[in-house]
Amino acid sequence: xxxxxxxxxxxxxxxxxxxxxxxxxxxxxxxxxxxxxxxxxxxxxxxxxxxxxxxxxxxxxxxxxxxxxxxxxxxxxxxxxxxxxxxxxxxxxxxxxxxxxxxxxxxxxxxxxxxxxxxxxxxxxxxxxxxxxxxxxxxxxxxxxxxxxxxxxxxxxxxxxxxxxxxxxxxxxxxxxxxxxxxxxxxxxxxxxxxxxxxxxxxxxxxxxxxxxxxxxxxxxxxxxxxxxxxxxxxxxxxxxxxxxx
Length: 246
Known about the structure:
The protein is an alpha/beta fold and 246 residues long. Helices cover 35% and strands 18% of the residues. The strands form three sheets. Strands 6-2-7-1-8 form a five-stranded parallel beta sheet, sandwiched between helices. A three-stranded parallel beta sheet has the order 3-5-4, sandwiched between helices. α5 (151-168) packs across α6. The protein is globular. The N and C termini lie close together (11 Å).
């Protein structure tokens, strides 16, 4: 039976452990939610980036630029970081270059993983089924926010860990696994309130992110399995032989 290790921050990860494991990165507000929403609406791929120069170069190669640089919006960006916009327009065939303060940095830092996937509440159900029959150990990594714990990422990790443990016989491998499972059990009936009352709730309110937060906390029937391959994030359906082996 495979094991699940959960990390609340990317800084806690032992990078040498990635090469033999499936890895899921979670940044609920908002990078991995954006990725799931974009791919589900026909975006061809998402290019994770970190710098303004990289974003401008991607725009010159036909990418739509989405996000910010260290919480600041720059003129080079075409779209906001709201994941809700992908259900409001026609993005089929588009390519998205994404830069966020925490999520894309974490994704790129975990690039050496055996298999690297993106998780959110939107696609959690599909991801759970996808990973359910794998024999590989799983590492769940929360992106957090600027080096601090994130309630929403931890709740999502707790949901995924709970489902894999109860339905697919995964075994928790560290104390953080138990902590996120208990956190989800405590707050699953009103995750929105838990997030607003968390350490970063004031920042969410000050930036008027309430509608995005509600969207990001919805467990949806999003069937995408965002997979990192050759520097790009694509839906697993378009990646040959990338599905975990039963």
